[in-house]
Backbone:
């Protein structure tokens, strides 16, 4: 099962490598990992997307909690939640394809944020599936470059992750 | 107190004083010269100069295992730190509280591939409970406080404090924090009341109960409540390699060691019990073998552990209790009023006695060649079961565990998790420093002893009267045993040629050397070592049967009831 684990950790040098090291040392898989400081500069918030059986996910949660730098942890997949990812795609945009590309960006509620005679750079937000769907919807030969941030997530409603 | 400014090096020493440290095991070098200069000027603790950094960490580790105090080691940057890694990993696997101080190149040189620079924090990260790089002298005292606190609390473990040389030179006001609180680290000690009640009930309802005692019972000072609970309930007790001594081994309720080389009765009882109380143990591969095979028999499991991640890791449990072993056991004890003296329990004991009658630890007592088991038995007899016994890793370790009947916790000191050859002699040094008047024995093999034999020099310097019991069979015994059983007797690189003359070697280091070749000489030689040479290190080279194997044995990947018996 796919799980999204959010955690708050001390914003200290090396904290990220402790988490990354834990996953590689114990053979857990990481689909994506994002991290940035929170409104409280002493804390970083990390979102990890991982997959595993219930037993493995239970161990991942326990092992993460055991890291001395981890302050609090929440498995977003335990309740309803929202996940978003940002993607920037640079595409070839020439001739007939140029108009078509604009249309596709609109359909996916993307924004064109950089324009040259031959290319567009499109900004797209959504869950991972939507971003992948966009890439599949356009002509693969037109894709020059893509960059994705990995998933960030937050629980719906009253459920919050805060100390 | 905070009026005058101290250098970082002075602060390190003052912190160690404030923690009540009496012994520091270490080796100097460029990056820690400032600290060593302060050590020279103080007499709050004794520094023991080892001959290799690995030995410093093993000695500090064993010091901790024997005393329950946090062990302290001090090494320099680069190779000093990398040499210490095996020791740190050994302590990590067995949850031993250590503070290892490593020197580092000056902050400005970090990342410049400076002389003796290594990323100590990066290298040690997977084998420490936590580590710190101290970049500012003003953070030094608080970091030291945290290091001791983290090492000793919760599930204990080694903590590395990496200190760049300029930080030991810079100055600031010093005040050692009296307490420390960390929002990210709050280990649980008290078990959940509801779970404790449930556990007590389950124990009282058991028909075929069993107590499974691990290293956590020793480290968590659980020996007293384990004994109290076992006696109140009249249940059988078995220990892991790391739990030996938590329950007195000569006691009839004791079934001995569990696992790959555990006793027949302990493993059979573990497999066939209906209620299992696991105390500070982790169902690891060397204990239960194949978890699928273990799961074939239905049983309910209560698991007490201070580390939540040890619970339901390899085996699902029914009543998990996270908390300090001693507190939780005390709480369970208050819930148990009567003694369950049921016919079912009597029948269970009758079954256990049948298993015990197998006499799985029997060996040939008429052999003209010295049997290694006989040496350990004689040692047990001569020391009255009261010695501290350290060991290296291999067959001799298993024979030590099987035949020396420990009656107290913290007496049996070995590298269980990592299985580090070379652990035994430096470990014996750590114990001998902690208990100068106690008998300290290192049971070893001719393979293991040569992995840290240079420490005979340290032993001489500090006049440590360790008795080295070398079970010399001329082969890397455990490797050879596996090759015999599982590799059709292809003895690849397991035969040790060109062994030194250990008697001369011991004498060259200034110790007493003995070579014992006949079974009838074993006991007299041991008596001589512990009387005539009581105050000396005696290196006893017992020439033992190279074909002897450790039995019983559960082959890797097999189940508890699939033992190979002699």
Residues:
């Amino acid at each position: 099962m796919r799980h999204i684990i959010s955690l708050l950790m001390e914003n200290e040098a090396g904290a990220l490598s402790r988490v990354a090291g834990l996953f590689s040392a114990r053979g857990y898989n990481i689909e994506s990992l994002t991290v940035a400081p929170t409104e409280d500069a002493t804390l970083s918030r990390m979102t990890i997307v991982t997959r595993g059986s219930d037993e493995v996910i239970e161990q991942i949660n326990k092992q993460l909690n055991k890291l001395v730098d981890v302050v609090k942890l929440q498995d977003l997949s335990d309740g309803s939640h929202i996940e978003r990812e940002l993607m920037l795609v640079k595409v070839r945009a020439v001739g007939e394809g140029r108009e078509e590309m604009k249309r596709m960006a609109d359909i996916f509620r993307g924004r064109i944020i950089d324009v040259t005679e031959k290319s567009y750079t499109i900004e797209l937000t959504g869950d991972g599936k939507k971003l992948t769907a966009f890439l599949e919807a356009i002509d693969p030969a037109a894709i020059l470059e893509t960059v994705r941030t990995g998933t960030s997530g937050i629980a719906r409603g009253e459920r919050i992750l805060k100390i | 107190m905070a009026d005058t400014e101290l250098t970082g090096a002075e602060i390190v020493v003052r912190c160690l004083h404030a923690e009540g440290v009496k012994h520091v095991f270490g080796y100097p070098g460029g990056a820690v010269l400032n600290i060593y200069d302060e050590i020279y000027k103080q007499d709050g603790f004794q520094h023991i100069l080892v001959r290799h950094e690995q030995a410093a960490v093993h000695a500090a580790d064993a010091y901790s295992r024997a005393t329950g105090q946090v062990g302290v080691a001090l090494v320099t940057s680069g190779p000093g730190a990398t040499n210490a890694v095996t020791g740190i990993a050994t302590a990590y696997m067995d949850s031993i509280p250590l503070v290892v101080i490593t020197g580092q190149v000056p902050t400005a040189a970090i990342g410049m591939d400076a002389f003796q620079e290594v990323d100590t924090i990066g290298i040690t990260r997977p084998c420490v409970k936590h580590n710190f790089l101290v970049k500012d002298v003003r953070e030094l005292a608080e970091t030291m406080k945290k290091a001791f606190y983290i090492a000793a609390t919760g599930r204990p473990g080694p903590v590395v404090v990496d200190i760049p040389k300029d930080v030991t030179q810079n100055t600031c006001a010093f005040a050692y924090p009296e307490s420390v609180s960390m929002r990210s680290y709050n280990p649980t000690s008290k078990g959940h009341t509801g779970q404790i009640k449930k556990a007590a009930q389950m124990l009282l309802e058991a028909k075929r109960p069993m107590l499974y005692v691990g290293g956590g019972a020793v480290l968590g000072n659980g020996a007293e409540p384990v004994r109290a609970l076992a006696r109140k309930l009249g249940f059988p007790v078995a220990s892991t390699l790391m739990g030996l001594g938590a329950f007195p081994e000569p006691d009839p309720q004791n079934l001995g060691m569990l696992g790959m080389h555990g006793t027949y009765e302990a493993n059979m009882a573990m497999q066939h019990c209906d209620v299992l109380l696991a105390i500070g143990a982790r169902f690891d591969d060397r204990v239960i073998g194949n978890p699928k095979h273990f799961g074939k028999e239905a049983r309910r499991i209560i698991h007490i552990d201070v580390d939540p991640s040890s619970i339901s890791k390899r085996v699902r449990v029914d009543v998990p209790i996270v908390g300090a072993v001693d507190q939780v056991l005390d709480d369970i004890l208050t819930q148990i009023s009567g003694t369950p003296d049921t016919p079912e329990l009597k029948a269970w004991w009758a079954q256990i006695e049948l298993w015990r009658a197998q006499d799985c630890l029997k060996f040939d007592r008429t052999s003209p060649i010295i049997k290694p088991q006989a040496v350990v038995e004689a040692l047990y007899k001569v020391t009255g079961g009261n010695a501290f016994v350290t060991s290296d890793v291999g067959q001799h370790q298993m024979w030590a565990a099987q035949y020396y009947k420990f009656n107290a916790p913290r007496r049996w000191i070995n590298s269980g998790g990592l299985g580090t050859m070379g652990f035994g002699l430096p470990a014996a040094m750590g114990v001998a420093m902690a208990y100068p008047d106690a008998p300290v024995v290192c049971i070893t093999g001719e393979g293991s002893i040569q992995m840290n034999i240079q420490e005979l020099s340290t032993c001489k310097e500090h006049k440590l009267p360790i008795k080295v019991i070398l079970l010399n069979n001329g082969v890397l015994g455990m490797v050879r045993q596996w090759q015999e059983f599982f590799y059709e007797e292809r003895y690849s690189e397991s035969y040790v040629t060109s062994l030194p003359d250990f008697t001369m070697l011991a004498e060259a280091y200034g110790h007493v050397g003995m070579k014992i070749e006949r079974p009838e000489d074993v006991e007299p030689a041991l008596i001589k070592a512990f009387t005539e040479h009581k105050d000396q290190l005696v290196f006893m080279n017992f020439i033992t049967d190279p074909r002897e194997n450790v039995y019983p044995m559960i082959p890797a990947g097999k189940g508890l009831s699939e033992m190979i018996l002699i």
